[in-house]
Design goal:
Helix content is 47%, strand content 16%. The protein is α+β, with helices and mostly antiparallel strands. The longest helix is centred in the last third of the chain and has 41 residues, at 522-562. The structure holds arginine (ARG).
Length: 719
């Protein structure tokens, strides 16, 4: 009696705490949409059948969803918008390709790029487009023979062995790429069968003054006026199969093409987004949240605060630096602002306390039953302990090391060269070795700016000084001895005088190599010292993560059992997901109401002539002033630029299609909002919004601004 009453009471209590899961939260796996989400999607307005969304026997919407990657490693999403393999994604997703094709004479970053015919479409070695063929739950196969008693290491090796076997069995002789990933902290495993296309060409991009309008100031911010889109085309071998680039390749004939709607949206309209979210940690515990603030957010912000302004200043000063550093800088600056936003919103919204409340409920649930106590123990105590043991300074050093290497092309150069040290007893390099090293040198030095590099290295030396002495790289004694402690003099020498500083110096070294010369070389010393420090503390960092693996898996298993009647979604891990919701506004702070869309009026309001972030292209300005919006105008007569929805997305989703109730394309998702940047850890229904560029603005830019009618003609536009 008592037990039942207690269970009932607890059940109500759990229901209250956990049923707060908001209706539109979640990044759902396509194969479960029919069972878990479809009814809710219909009630919000969806008109398609579940099979029209995801079907493995017939073509369905999922066949238009592309993962954009570097050699198959995904970083963004794209979608198929024509029967000739035209793919839409974000400007910031195509940015690296656009930058790679840019020179001071052909500055596609600044001026945009529109291929006038197939011959002008530009190939991008390494860029890949991945399609999902099907997915399957393979938990039973991967964890066959694993029990609660199986030790962590053994569990991992059993799982890895099973994964290898499955990969071999399913790849059909290499036609498919088989990816098997853990879900729910390793409690489940799913297999993804992919087809990867390797000839992906750049066909269209607006100037950055449209595609990146507002740049860093507006990044992660609403209201937004960015035309964040670019277009690529996927090519195949003449028989339609995936192939490496060849001039004989032909435009892809896709299985499914998204129709495009010109109707626009209203508040409350159904929306869904399909794409490849990269990483979330929604089930993170309160202990980990507190640790994240101190041991990740803060060190990353510290490093970026010191390093990035140096690069920005040089980019602002010289076009050649702007072009060559654009892509790396943009992604670093994006991380910088993201980490600041995550830190601030985690604190402001009291996320650690909210998590602690949920954890208490879970612990009570475990403790209310003997069998559960035996099965799960107290995973939270183990997580707490692991978090309290993290060596804060070591983890800071780990992040400083990473950000030093990522922000300085020169510091990282020796790492990329291959073996430039003589082996035991060797006196010289063979001609082949020399040629190879020189080739790598040229490739890696391309676009490197000496002044920028000197400034970054000097800044990094100041950054590392923020750590206690015992965590600093050992370079400082060398600098004290040889440069009287002068960071600027050292970095000048490291870049200009070093064996690695100029091609002439490097050639001289190749002709007369000596390990002794390396030991005396300032850049080599610097590189070796930073890398050594990084490797040392990477070990500490990994160890602290490892300690969390088993208790997190148990915590997750308990959570899943406690909520077994409720559909749970797994954390994002670069696999295809669907999120559904509606168009909606929000209230960022007391007394402030943000409307759900912006118009071109705001572009003129934000205009700062000549400013690198807010300059407006004269042609765009004229079109706006003339209200020359053609069929892309809203029924209110204005041209909408961006709109908001409450879809649940994260990094990796960039470029994802946002679709209406009929599955027609209404925009491209490209950002989140600063007020809710804790979204990778906690979804706040009231605050978290997804920022989309309106497809009508995209088409307006292609058609009216660029006059690139050929692309419009190949699309399926529904008026
Ligand atoms: N915040 C966007 C994302 O993470 C990237 C936006 C790129 N734009 C920029 N100004 N850096 O997907």
């Amino acid at each position: 009696m008592k037990k039942t009453l207690l269970t009932a009471l607890l059940a109500i209590f759990f229901a209250q705490v956990f049923a707060t899961t908001p209706p539109d939260e979640g990044m759902w796996l396509p194969m479960f949409v029919k069972d878990y989400n479809y009814a809710k999607m219909r009630s919000l307005g969806l008109k398609l059948t579940a099979d029209q969304l995801y079907d493995i026997n017939n073509s369905s919407l999922k066949d238009a969803i592309v993962q954009l990657g570097n050699d198959g490693n995904g970083f963004c999403t794209g979608e198929i918008i024509s029967k000739n393999g035209l793919m839409l994604t974000n400007h910031h997703c195509g940015y690296e390709s656009i930058a790679n094709h840019s020179t001071e004479e052909h500055d596609y970053l600044k001026d945009g790029f529109w291929a006038k015919n197939y011959d002008e479409e530009l190939s991008n070695p390494g860029l890949t487009a991945t399609f999902l063929v099907r997915m399957e739950n393979v938990t039973d196969k991967v964890l066959a023979g694993v029990t609660d008693e199986t030790k962590k290491g053994e569990r991992e090796s059993m799982a890895n062995k099973a994964i290898k076997e499955l990969q071999n069995a399913e790849s059909e002789g290499g036609r498919y790429t088989i990816v098997i990933k853990p879900f729910f902290d390793g409690n489940e495993y799913y297999m993804f069968v992919y087809e990867i296309y390797r000839d992906v060409r750049l066909v269209g991009a607006p100037p950055s003054s449209i595609g990146k309008f507002g740049d860093e100031t507006d990044n992660w911010v609403w209201p937004r006026h960015t035309g964040d889109f670019s277009m690529f085309r996927i090519y195949t071998a003449p028989d339609g199969s995936p192939a490496e680039y060849s001039k004989d390749n032909v435009p892809m004939k896709p299985k499914y093409v998204l129709p495009i709607s010109l109707k626009g949206t209203e508040m409350g309209d159904y929306t869904m987004i399909w794409g490849y979210p990269g990483s979330t940690d929604r089930y993170m515990t309160s202990y980990e949240v507190r640790s994240l603030l101190e041991n990740q957010n803060k060190p990353i912000i510290e490093a970026c605060d010191v390093l990035l302004p140096e690069i920005r200043a040089e980019m602002n000063a010289r076009d050649i630096v702007r072009i060559n550093y654009a892509s790396d800088y943009a992604s670093m600056a994006n991380t910088w602002k993201n980490q600041k936003g995550e830190y601030a919103s985690l604190i402001k919204l009291g996320i650690a306390d909210k998590k602690a409340e949920q954890e208490k409920v879970l612990l009570d649930w475990i403790n209310a039953d003997k069998a559960r106590q035996e099965k799960y123990g107290n995973p939270l105590a183990k997580i707490e302990k692991a978090c309290s043991e993290v060596d804060h300074e070591a983890v800071r050093a780990f992040f400083y090391g990473n950000f030093t290497l990522m922000n300085s092309k020169t510091t990282f150069l020796p790492y990329n060269l291959g073996n430039f040290r003589l082996g035991e007893g060797e006196k010289s390099f063979t001609e082949d070795q020399k040629a190879e090293l020189l080739k790598n040198y040229r490739e890696n030095m391309k676009g490197t700016d000496i002044v920028t590099e000197e400034k970054v290295i000097a800044a990094a030396l100041r950054l590392w000084k923020q750590l206690p002495v015992e965590y600093q790289p050992d370079i400082y004694s060398y600098i004290d001895k040889k440069f009287k402690g002068d960071f600027v003099a050292f970095s000048k020498a490291a870049v200009e005088k070093s064996i690695f500083g100029t091609e002439a110096n490097f050639q001289k070294y190749l002709d007369k190599p000596s390990n002794k010369a390396l030991e005396a070389d300032p850049l080599y010393q610097w590189f070796a010292s930073v890398l050594g420090t990084l490797i040392q503390y990477q070990g500490v960092y990994m160890e602290s993560k490892n300690k969390l693996a088993t208790p997190r898996r148990k915590y997750m298993a308990a959570l899943m059992e406690m909520q077994q009647d409720k559909a749970m979604y797994p954390d994002a891990n670069m696999t295809m997901r669907c999120t559904y919701g509606t168009v909606c506004d929000y209230f960022p702070s007391d007394g402030v109401h943000y409307k759900h869309f912006t118009t071109t009026q705001g572009i003129l309001e934000k205009e700062i002539p000549g400013d690198p972030e807010f300059d407006v292209h004269p042609k765009l300005k004229q079109l706006i002033l003339n209200k020359d919006f053609g069929r892309y105008a809203d029924k209110d007569g204005t041209l909408h630029v961006c709109f908001l929805s409450n879809n649940d997305i994260t990094g990796g989703n960039s470029g994802s299609p946002i679709l209406n109730a009929k599955g027609e394309l209404i925009g491209s998702a490209f950002d989140g909002n600063i007020e809710a940047l804790c979204s990778d850890i906690f979804f706040d229904t009231e605050l978290q919004r997804c920022i989309n560029v309106d497809i009508r603005y995209v088409l307006f830019v292609i058609d009216k601004f660029a006059g690139a009618q050929r692309f419009i003609d190949e699309m399926n536009i529904v008026e």
